[in-house]
Amino acid sequence: MTFPRSIFLLGFCTTLTGAAHAQSWPARPVRIIAPFAAGGSADLLGRITAGKLSESMGQSFIVENRPGAGGVLGSELVARSAPDGYTLLVSGVASHAVAPALAAKFPFDPVKDFAHIALFGGPPSVLAVHPSLPVKDLKAFIAFAQSKPRELTYGSPGNGTQGHLIAELFKRSAGFDMQHIPYKGASGAVVDVMAGHTHAISTTLTTAGAQIRAGRLRALAISSAARLPDYDVATFREAGFPDLVANIWFSLSGPAALSPEIVNRLNSEVRRVLQLPDVRARLRPEGIEPGNLDAKAFTEFVAAEVKRWAPVVKASGAKAD
């Protein structure tokens, strides 16, 4: 079968136009929507990356916080934006893998409505207790909790957060129960466990790390694949819970029709930035291992995470607040 010469010329010209646009981009400041509150891991990773991209790409990359609905509001804004490379998103497990399973109707498809560009990485979850609790490790905590059915309480940053889901997975795997106290953010949960109002907390290591290092909280286990050099804390995996290997992750995404040339250029640049010695040194105390996936592999990762967390959310009974 032969095709008219005009069709080939049209395709060739389209390719040239896309390549030319990618070479001239960015010609003005780029907005990165962080759909979570300032001060958390998403904000940290977004701002570190934005600062480095501003230095290397000759235009300002400006982080704009648009919190609300577990990251959904800001994510929807980007999904509906023009795919010109000037509106990007700090996406993540909460907005793209957990939130879709919390609601019967959802305003976007977490895979198809985005161009997933690069994985930033993220911290593991940590299960920590007040130092007065008579347990030194995960085995002792399980025995203690089993001896006091539903008497123990744990706080998390909220219903459907990674801290909540990891704790629910742990409870079912270990065969005990404790009451979940959802907070609107991690800070209140940290304050209450230090004050002795709750027995435990399940949250990010970024959130609780300073209190753990200061001895105001006792960490029992973290959800990373291996122990972290800055924390002498066992992993859930080595304690016999391999299903609890699950770092919280954040990433860079854009609208679905974003030019592949811009996607690949950003992917290459973000991966370079995340391996810079000063960036790795900044992320290490937070327990964050930088991501290093190409755009195709990262998109496949997002799709796999959507499938992974949907049944966990359903089993937890969590609903959108």
From the 3D structure, determine the CATH topology of the largest domain.
Answer: D-Maltodextrin-Binding Protein, domain 2
String of helices and strands: HEHEHEHEEHEHEHEHEEHHEH
Rounded average pLDDT: 90
Q: What percentage of the residues does DSSP assign to strands (E)?
A: 15-25%
Domain module count? 2
CATH superfamily of the largest domain: Bordetella uptake gene, domain 1
Task: Name the overall outline.
Answer: globular
As a whole number of angstroms, the C-alpha radius of gyration is: 21 Å
Measured between the Cα atoms of the first and last residue, the distance is 57 Å
Under the CATH scheme, the architecture of the largest domain is 3-Layer(aba) Sandwich
Tally the beta strands: 11
Structural class: alpha/beta
- How many helical elements? 11
Which key features would you list for this structure?
321 residues, alpha/beta, D-Maltodextrin-Binding Protein, domain 2, five-stranded mixed beta sheet
